């Protein structure tokens, strides 16, 4: 009888160990941010496989222009964007914006995901790269109109952590290279971005974003972009409403070419609107 009890006890211990191993799984953090942008810059988020994000980004003119310009509403820039999840770790994007009539394409690679449980990872990490083309007509006879002069490139390492259901923060070390600039400007611009999200209601969150760029310290023309706003969830849409001192919506624009100053009232009201679609294979529809 005692032998049977020993065997049964050992068997119970083994089953307990197996149950613990089954229960211990990798728990990945979801929705560090609610959309692929914090405000101007990319967040750690990206589309899942076969998801398409159609975005309309809008920036009005400077609010300090007064009633004649309807406080900036008469002078708006727009950016249309398509971003697609090629895989769960790769997102590709194409855009067209009115700022310098820019076309641009991008890739975002997921490197690490914040997780707990069987695998503990304190942060999420992604790499983002972008190439943009200025398609404005060249009117200066002293500038040679060759294709490579129109190109600019941006690279970012996105490092984010979701501290709780309410608070998320992100660091974005960035590098921008412009092939053609004015004689008194730098081709290469280094920057560090810092942004975050505080969810204070079920469908509303406060957001902020700031980039410190290397070329602004000695410049009277360019400023560091600072943006504050709100994310609003409405069904299948995400609305972002905000104030920013940067009107361009491409990385080389808002990191390296921000000309608005909060101190002088050079502030722009803007919004981003996002709608996500699931793209299924034909065989999956039946």
Describe the 3D structure.
Helices cover 10% and strands 46% of the residues. The chain has 286 residues and is mainly beta. It has one domain (29-285): monomeric porin ompg (Porin). Strand 10 and strand 11 form a beta hairpin. Mean pLDDT is 89; it is low at 1-6.
List keywords for this structure.
286 residues; mainly beta; Porin; twelve-stranded antiparallel beta barrel; two-stranded antiparallel ribbon; 2 helices; 46% strand; disordered N terminus
What order do the helices and strands follow? HEEEEEEEEEEEEEHE
Spatial separation of the terminal alpha carbons = 60 Å
Q: Can you tell me the CATH topology?
A: Porin
Major sheet: arrangement of strands:
2-3-4-5-7-8-9-10-11-12-13-14
The percent range for strand residues is over 45%
Approximate helicity band? under 10%
Tell me the name of the CATH class.
Answer: Mainly Beta
What is the number of E strands?
Answer: 14
CATH architecture: Beta Barrel
Give the secondary structure arrangement, pairings included.
Blueprint: H1 2-23, E1 26-28, E2 51-62, E3 77-85, E4 90-97, E5 102-112, E6 115-117, E7 124-134, E8 151-162, E9 167-178, E10 188-199, E11 204-213, E12 226-234, E13 237-244, H2 251-256, E14 268-278
Antiparallel strand pairs: 1-6, 2-3, 2-14, 3-4, 4-5, 5-7, 7-8, 8-9, 9-10, 10-11, 11-12, 12-13, 13-14
Summarize the structure.
The chain has 2 helices and 14 strands; from the N terminus they run αβββββββββββββαβ.
